[in-house]
Amino acid sequence: MTTVAENIVHTLHANGVQRVYGIPGDSLNGFTDALRKDGTIRWVHVRHEETAAFAAAADAALTGDLAVVAGSCGPGNLHLINGLYDANRSRVPVLAIAAHIPTSEIGTGYFQETHPQELFRESSVYVEYVADPSQMPRVLEIAMRAAIEQRGVAVVVIPGDVALADARDTRTTVIERTRPVVVPSPAELEEAATILNGCDRVTILAGAGVEGAHDEVIALADRLGAPIVHALRGKEFIEYDNPYDVGMTGLLGFASGYRAMDAADALLLLGTDFPYTQFYPDGVTTIQVDIRGSQLGKRHPLDLGLVGDVKATAEALLPRLKRKEDRAHLDDATAHYRKTRAKLDELAVPSRGKAPIHPQYLASLLDDAASSDAVFTADVGSPTVWAARYFTMTEGRRLIGSFNHGSMANALLHGIGAQVAYPDRQVVALAGDGGLSMMLGELISLTQNKLPVKVVVVNNSSLNFVELEMKAAGFVTYGTDLENPDFAAVAQALGIFARRVERSEDLLDAVAEVLAHDGPALLDVVTERQELSMPPAIKADQVKGFALYALRTVMSGRGDELLDLAKANWRQLF
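Predicted structure:
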């Protein structure tokens, strides 16, 4: 007889699933043994279930295919939650098998008992508890379809005894992703064209929804004479081969992106959920295009909301638009971008003497040395700032991060999934020292799974972005110090090739050596702690906050910190 667990594995195989991320446990025995017997699906063994979920999220983001993760009952599958939140908020298809305690013990306060179907509800688009073999494989099919069609996380909660029970139905169903073309109505397109044709200064803000619509968005920009600002998640899909690119806006962006939006009399928002309302200009005509109608007007008041996928909508809208012969707005925005870009590049220089390395210099060297189809991952915080500003995208490069959920420690974990999905591509994980130390044990997953991920540590001995937020709010930095080990020595003890660099003069060769190594490698770079990553527009309350921080820091007897801050940032402040 075929067990329920064996039928799950047969269904996954029929749907092209090639790997499952996780950690085994007794409640998962039926499932993992079915994987062993089947032999066609790889079990990717990591050291923490959170890693499994983040790795699956990166796998799904890069391939576009359903990724699968499994966790044992109680604490085992609870560890999945943070990574599943990330996957769900990034809108990538992930199926989670959450094992449960024996059916007869549910509700008794049994060892490791939780209520997974309640706990996973907010981090998923679908979650269901399988209480009886008769529910399968129907629940599995519904879950897979929900994950694929809604682009999110689906969780199947199944007790170990149910997984080991004889299957009542052994069918295996292949779930084909539907590919509808969604276009606004002709009347809506005409209204959009009338608005855009009547405005003189149009700016496009492009988000993750422009994936697959690069050429169509470029054509719109050309017709409208519109600079293209991108949100962080849109960077990898629209930045490359784009003469209308003027960079990012927002907390991680820079002045040219902010200016291009602020100077516009019309904004065209394409597939973006850019959350920072303070960076949208007031009193500007706004049109938004999104495949999900519920997203329309969510961040900024609209004059017109259009439901449609960006590629098809752009194609349908383009013939209705008049070419704007006055390119003054576009020319001003792109000229300002060139100046802003030059200023940013001027910061990516070696430090003098024995001073710690500027993180901009590190990011710039990585960008120059990485392959044209590299997959970059970046930890939340300052590594994401430097990645956003200094990693340039090509048609082949990708940039993965916890850009919506904002979790620490994601770079290495996403890097694992990226490398498993694409074993022959270069994967560079730009990790913060706080993030890496939080999940340090996953370096072992690199060696155990023979994954040649290149981990580059921005080692500033602090929770650096948290310190910046404290300073901007007027607080004396507190509780952010990190007493770090020599990460290179730790990596070497784990069997990983590693280099540690403390001086700029040694960095170029070290970057080249680490990226060229045939196998996992780690580069520990001691960087400037006091480096400022300023937002593109400094608000009055931030100026006030920095003044309060300076005053309170002096009064607390830590005035030397202000001298270090001024010294580290002298070149960008004056």
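Summary: The chain has a mean pLDDT of 92.
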